[in-house]
Specification:
Layout: H1 2-33, E1 38-40, E2 44-50, E3 57-58, E4 61-62, H2 65-68, E5 70-78, E6 81-91, H3 92-105, E7 108-113, E8 123-132, H4 134-145, H5 169-176, E9 181-183, E10 186-191, E11 198-199, E12 202-203, E13 212-220, E14 223-232, H6 234-246, E15 250-255, E16 261-262, E17 266-275, H7 276-287
Antiparallel strand pairs: 1-2, 2-5, 3-4, 5-6, 6-8, 7-8, 9-10, 10-13, 11-12, 11-16, 13-14, 14-17, 15-17
Helix pairs in contact: 1-4, 3-4, 5-7, 6-7
């Protein structure tokens, strides 16, 4: 019994050491990138890069960064190396300088496109992919982001948003069949698919962009602006497109985010502003035409 207890204690020490080393490694990634991140489900280290410096409006509505301007980078270990994926929010004049620095560092650009229509000023979204030493990847991404005005400083404690939000969140949860969360004055849903998406032979967790994202920004009197993207197989694209449009939700883009994903998926971006509950029910009707996780 004593030997078994000693062996168990040794395993706990080793496990603690490995965990501490992993946390220390991620802290080095945050330092190299210039902004700390958070360890998410699936062992993903995710760094949010909201464009809080921009004042973008659509149809006269000023967008909160967490509605449709939330850039991010996510790292996950791959054996002795790491994979990074992300979505950088850029103004038109930032696209080529950032792309040049990414190319020089060997980080791949997997997509460049719009998410919104009629945005003033116009914003573009650059998806990236890299493999290698995570600290070196983070340093290269920091160098690329320096060619933009993307804020890298961590928000101060006094700048945090209050937990409340002017929406009936319980009714939204019921309509969508999922639980949302408040982030930066926006009520956000992340609804995973029921199948597994992989890229480069590695599973892509929800925190790396494989989940359906549906965001609600309150406009007062029970109304909201919604934006986000749905993750779809080829055969789901047009049924979902019809379901959204029949309910007055505008489809603003359909495109890829990854290059070697299996199965290959498309991302459908959307925009609308109306009664929040009505929009949530419409989004659920669209989700029901996809292989989402049963709620």
């Amino acid at each position: 019994m004593r030997k078994m207890l000693i062996a168990a204690a040794a395993l706990l020490v080793v496990g603690y050491s490995l965990l501490a080393r992993a946390e220390d490694d991620w802290s080095k990634v945050g330092t190299a990138l210039g902004k700390p991140g958070t360890v998410m489900q699936g062992g993903v280290y995710r760094v949010g890069l909201p464009r809080s410096d921009l004042h973008v409006s659509v149809d006269g509505i000023v967008l909160k960064p967490t509605l449709a301007l939330g850039g991010w980078l996510a790292f996950k270990t791959m054996g002795t190396e790491a994979m990074v994926m992300g979505d950088l929010v850029l103004t038109e004049d930032e696209v080529n300088p950032v792309m040049s620095r990414l190319e020089e560092s060997g980080i791949e650009i997997t997509a460049l496109h719009n998410h919104l229509l009629r945005a003033t000023p116009n914003t573009m979204y650059m998806h990236v992919f890299g493999q290698g030493d995570p600290v070196k990847l983070a340093a290269a991404l920091h160098e690329a982001l320096a060619a933009s005005h993307t804020p890298l400083q961590a928000p101060s404690a006094g700048a945090s948003q209050p937990p409340g939000i002017d929406l009936d969140t319980a009714a939204l949860d019921q309509a969508l069949g999922a639980k949302g969360k408040v982030s930066g004055g926006v009520y956000q849903f992340s609804i995973p698919r029921g199948d597994t998406i992989s890229d480069g032979g590695m599973a892509v967790p929800a925190a790396m962009g494989s989940a359906n994202a549906i965001n609600f920004q309150p406009l007062g009197s029970g109304k909201a602006a919604i934006a986000g993207d749905l993750v779809l197989l080829a055969q789901e694209v047009n049924p979902v497109l019809r379901a959204l449009r029949e309910n007055g939700i505008e489809v603003t883009a359909v495109h890829n985010h990854m290059l070697e994903d299996q199965p290959h998926v498309f991302f459908m971006h959307f925009w609308a502003h109306d009664d929040a509950i009505r929009l949530a029910k419409a989004m659920r009707a669209a989700l029901d035409k996809t292989a989402v996780v049963a709620q």
